[in-house]
User: What shape does this take?
Amino acid sequence: MRPPKGQHGFVPWKLSGLRTGGAARGANALRDAHDARTVLTTEALQRTPLHTLHVELGARLVPFAGYEMPVQYPSGILAEHRHTRAAAGLFDVSHMGQARLHGTNAASALETLVPMDLRGLAFGRQRYAFFTNDAGGILDDLMVTNRGDFLYLVVNAARKAADFELLKNLDFEILADRALLALQGPTAAEAIARLSPRLASMPFMSSDSAKVGDFVCQVSRSGYTGEDGFEISVAAADAEPLARLLLAQPGVAPVGLGARDSLRLEAGLCLYGHDIDETTTPVEAGLEWAIQKVRRRGGAHEGKFPGAALILDQLERGASRRRVGIRPEGRAPIREGETLHDSTGRAVGRLTSGGFGATLDAPLAMGYVETEFAAPGTPLSATVRGKPRACRVSALPFVPHRYHRGKPK
Assistant: This one.
């Protein structure tokens, strides 16, 4: 392992995500969820390079994954959510881990930890991936980009320490001196085109190095909202002036983690530690699309990743449970952890995410059910405060993705 360029200060506490909703308060209600075994103080929390800007903008700051992060700004979660769907939202995601994996065999080495085809990943292209364990469970999900001389990785904030431990025997470098911004929404391309015109023509899941304004950045066309958008890695020292420049563009507004969570729920995207974890397999989670044919049975690079036997078997035979969308009746959200029942009252599943979908103006949830109950439209019920609540299985995503599809260069 290469020494980090700065003080990475791992915080190995496991923190859960943010949940929004409430019939009366819409998406403005927030539960600051974290591991009950860990007492966090403001002094114990790390801050991103945009902390001063968050305070200036009036953000409500909460503990998240060991960082003091903006959950919302004065406009509120509901307004931020809708603004991102209508225009462009700027998110600070600098708490996430960034790293480079070096060496001529970097792709094949990483393939021993993930079931993705990385040797076939073209230069300038990005791929969704996940680390697996010997039981076929998911240790974390991440993004991998081929930058030619190295693979660029972005991992979840709460799993940084564990993920970097998995990589310790490889030639990797922690990018502790980088910040990460996400510009998301239907007008994101217009905003970035004013500052770096060629980036607006990038296709989804591509990456390029470019100047955004006067700042040298690594930019990918990707995100976690279901909208078109860009994720921008920049030197920590340049993060605040770059953020100010982006916020000065017409239609761009700051958005916190509360709306980021409700946006990803509408988009049917998994949150690690909730919808996927060490006990869920990729097939159960409906993520088999991410495993390329070359890594499956009969492929040129079949298996040879943790949990391969079980995962490859499930790819062929299916799994006993599946992740599904859930549409509750009424206005109030149904929260994570609630049990799902069939018409006889038998428990057939469990919710893993729940909240209020501001775009649909309705409560939404995701969870796992026995495979025979996974068809869209299947009636189920959940027990909320001791009373049954009717709901139905829904196809995912709840809101159609609007990624910019195009031909790579």
Residues 288-394 form a domain with the Elongation Factor Tu (Ef-tu); domain 3 fold (CATH 2.40.30.110). Confidence is low (pLDDT under 50) at residues 2-42.
